[in-house]
Amino acid sequence: MRPGTRSQLTTQELRLQLNREHRSVEVETDETLLSVLRDKLKLYGNRQGCGIGYCGACTVLVDGKPVSSCIMLAVQVEGKQLTTVEGLSKDGKLHPVQQAFLDHTAFQCSYCTPGFILTTKAMLDEDPSPSREEIREYLVGNLCRCGSYYNILEAAEEAAVRMQAKKQVASD
Amino acid sequence: MNVGRAIPYVDALERVDGSIGFTINLEVPGMLHARVLRSPSPHARLLKVDTSRAEHLPGVVAVLTGVDFRPASDMELLYGGMNGDQPVVARDKVRYVGEPIAVIAAETPETAERALSFIDVEYEDLIPVFDPYEADTEDSSLVHDEYDTNVCSYFKLRHGNVEAGFAEADRVFEHRFYSPAAQQFPLEPHVTIASVDASSATLWSSTQAPYPVRESVAKVLKLPEDKVRIIVPPLGGGYGAKNFVKLEPMVAATARKAGRPVRLALSTEEEFVTVTKHPAVVTIKTGVKADGTLTARKVDIHWSGGAYADTTPPVARGGGVTATGPYRVPHAWVDSRAMYTNLPQAGSFRGLAVNQVVWAYESQMDIIADALGMDPLEFRLHNLIDEGEEWVTGERMDDSHYKELIREVADKIGWDKPSRSEGHLKRGKGLSVTLKSTITPSTSRASLKVDATGTLWVLASSVEMGQGVKTVLSQMAADAVGVPLEQVRIVDPDTSVTPYDMTTSSSRSTFSSGGAIRNAADSLKAQLLELASEITEHDPTDIEIVDGFISSKNSPGKGLLIGELLQKSDRDELFAEGTLETQGGLDPETGQGKASDHWHQGAGAAEVEVDTETGRVAILRYHAASYVSRVINPTNVRLQNEGNVVYGLGPALFEEIIFDQGRVVNSNLDSYPIPSLEDVPKHLSSSALERPDAEMPYGVGENTLPSVAPAIANAVFWATGVRIHDLPITPEKVLRALRAKKEQN
Lengths: 172, 745
Hints:
The structure holds 2 protein chains of 2 kinds.
Chain A: E1 11-18, E2 21-28, H1 33-40, E3 59-62, E4 65-68, E5 81-83, H2 96-103, H3 113-126, H4 132-138, H5 149-171
Parallel strand pairs in A: 1-5
Antiparallel strand pairs in A: 1-2, 3-4, 3-5
Helix pairs in contact in A: 2-5
Chain B: H1 12-16, E1 32-38, E2 44-50, H2 52-55, E3 60-64, E4 78-79, E5 86-87, E6 93-94, E7 100-106, H3 109-115, E8 120-125, H4 132-135, E9 151-159, H5 162-168, E10 171-179, E11 191-196, E12 201-205, H6 210-221, E13 228-231, H7 248-258, E14 262-265, H8 268-271, E15 280-288, E16 294-304, H9 312-321, E17 331-339, H10 354-372, H11 376-383, E18 389-390, E19 396-397, H12 402-412, E20 425-436, E21 443-451, E22 456-460, H13 469-481, E23 488-490, H14 509-536, E24 543-546, E25 549-552, E26 559-561, H15 562-568, E27 573-581, E28 585-586, E29 593-594, E30 600-611, E31 617-629, H16 634-653, E32 659-660, E33 663-664, E34 683-690, H17 708-720, H18 731-744
Parallel strand pairs in B: 1-14, 12-13, 16-17, 22-23, 31-34
Antiparallel strand pairs in B: 1-7, 2-6, 2-8, 3-7, 4-5, 9-17, 10-15, 11-12, 11-14, 15-16, 18-19, 20-30, 21-22, 21-27, 24-25, 25-26, 28-29, 30-31, 32-33
């Protein structure tokens, strides 16, 4: 291919549910989901980290499951439900997992924080009351270089308790 | 009072909703994207750099090479590095694999990337030198031809008569310890955007050092410093990687050539050739009497500094001056030689320089204790300096708390209780203590402003990189002036707005910027009281400021809010400046003098379980303690103290950059793992020691990091009887040592 051109690339209209809203965006077929989120949709809570799917900074939820958006092609999420950190708060109120991370200062530089929050949410949607060991295992694919892991574990436990209590109230 | 309280980060909300504005999110209208052509050779003469084919590609706007820095050009090639030795891009010679040769600015990152392969370069390979000892020989090839030596920096310490000290000893021990290169690995890479015209420049950059960056960019662009503006949004991690000057000169020069703003963000692989931890070999010889009293210590350190100085001189000094440890050593001799080598430049790394020397002296303390049949805790307590003692630099060590710290960690780990081993799972405990200097002399300035809304603005150039400096400085400013925290606003560093600060490094911000803020607050308060006195006709000494409310001490409740006072006096704002300057310095020939304004003190204790069948070391328990003088925010203190331990586990157990003929072999997480939740000890705890009457906080910073590796190695020794001298403590090394020990018996 001649450099400086993108003539060989095809574009495609991508339709998806992004943070509970129908969205349609034109993407190149070789474009990563992370690049579409950051560069096209300006959703900067989705972080560019290692670029090879190891650090978890780019984590988003596809149909509720955490994936590394830096190694997923945007076209793969056609018709799917995508949740990013920007879609977590509702009516100006933080999601309980975000609130727990805030209350426990479960971050330092916070570059990794959206990824941790989304993975924690996915975990609690699967299993509302995980043990500490289960939390460690579930969050092992998200890396925090500042080393705030203890606060993260505490925040995840607290979020589980609060979400359980909320459910309890709702069902009473 | 805000100081001492666990107040949430002032920017906590934007950190959990993801909206915090890192540099990597920024865009400037008309901005081009840069990519860098890097050297494949560790040491070669550049015979030809032909960019003509690349320049003619559609979408390519500018290509920067060494040719752009002809003597008569509008730019200067060499900048900063502590020795002024670093070219913006390589000109006559390349000195490491990964060195920038050309920068391409294009309309899209993809275009810039593809254009790289259209630059034709011819090299004439030269003999490289990678080993710091080899670099220190007369017949070594020279990394910088013009210097006639590969010595980048040489620190000497001479105290007493070291040979007489060895003569007094009953036993003399000599060991060699090695620390390899490691990567700081901030998850946000280095990223810089530059917008440059003929008479001024504005840069947005992920740097820990706005003012040194300004100086270097001004030099390269041949502009006065006040025409260069450096803006620093919060960093997604720094850990030393972003200390000093990195991409900024290259991006600024490219932007000038392109005539448009230019952005460069590094890939993870590029991070590995931009800065590393210093590989270091420490040879340590110690004389000791039969009763365990140290008589002398002689230390030789050889640092591999890589191709350019960067922060190597303060590393050679900071590691050299502390190489005998926080011990009473009557006769000391240190040679700390940092060599230029054909490797990527080594620079600041969380726990700067001290990581490498603590690894040596604290490992050796346990070797000696074992040889003398002494308990490692007792042996240390016997030799640790006390409050007010003279130390190897000749300075008095006031405010020394090493004994308290080591007792604290020993106690928390249950030092007295034996570890229980079962079968092939051997358990043991280990201790370590750390002292670390802070850059001395140094200067920080800060300004405070109150406006007619009653808002207190804090202007300081300490960079927020996750350590919570904005929170801590806001707390200090609120209390020092007497306003509620909600009325305090702190801005990010911007050299056109926030005053001079040396760097955000060396564990210094709480002390230095905090101190400058307090001084500014004294002046601001005096102005407020003066103004209040004019309005109320009370004497200034009868007036106080509490919770943003100015009132007479005799009639509390009756008074004015700060905003009301300004309005009544028809003033828009009041402004005050403060400075904190520390004094000191060392004699270059003897290392005698004052090394540090105050000392950062830490200790750690580990309990490990070694699987003697696999060599795997599991950390069961770790306690870290640091002396902080005064806690400003307990949440932040804990995060830093324990974050240090987690960070330290990497270089202790598995992090090591592997070079093959100068080329980095493992430059991303698939081959260079960093600690995850799986690696974090089940029991991790920390304490921060304070002094009730302490005036100034010392800050936390890196105190608890350097002890991690030796505490673990010492625990491995007490568990298994094998001693690891070379970091990291991998299962392979442990297994090999266990086998060697078995064969010996």
